[in-house]
Amino acid sequence: MTKQFPKNFMWGGAIAANQAEGAYNLDGRGLTATDVTTGGSVKMPRYTTYIDKDGKPGKVASMGHNGVIPEGAKYAVLDTEYYPNHQAVDFYHRYKEDIKLFAEMGYSIFRLSISWARIFPNGDDIRPNQAGLDFYRSVFEECRKYNIEPLVSIWHFDTPLSLEERFGGWTNRKLVDFYVKYAETIFREYKGLVKYWLTFNEINNTIMFLDMMSDISGKEATDKEYQDAYQHLHHQFVASAKTVQIGHAIDPNYVIGNMICGITFYPGTCDPKDILANQHKWEQGIYYCGDVQAKGKYGTYAKRLWKEHNVELVMEDGDLEILEKGKVDMYTFSYYMSNNVTTHEVEDKVSGNFSAGAKNPYLTYSDWGWAHDPVGLQYYLEKIYDRYEIPLMVVENGLGAFDTVEEDGSIHDDYRIDYHRAHIKAMADAIDNGVNLIAYTTWGCIDIVSAGTGEMRKRYGFIYVDMDDAGNGTLNRTPKDSFYWYKEVLATNGLNVLEESDR
Ligand code: P53
Question: Structural domain of residue 116, as residue ranges?
Answer without folding.
Answer: 10-38+82-502
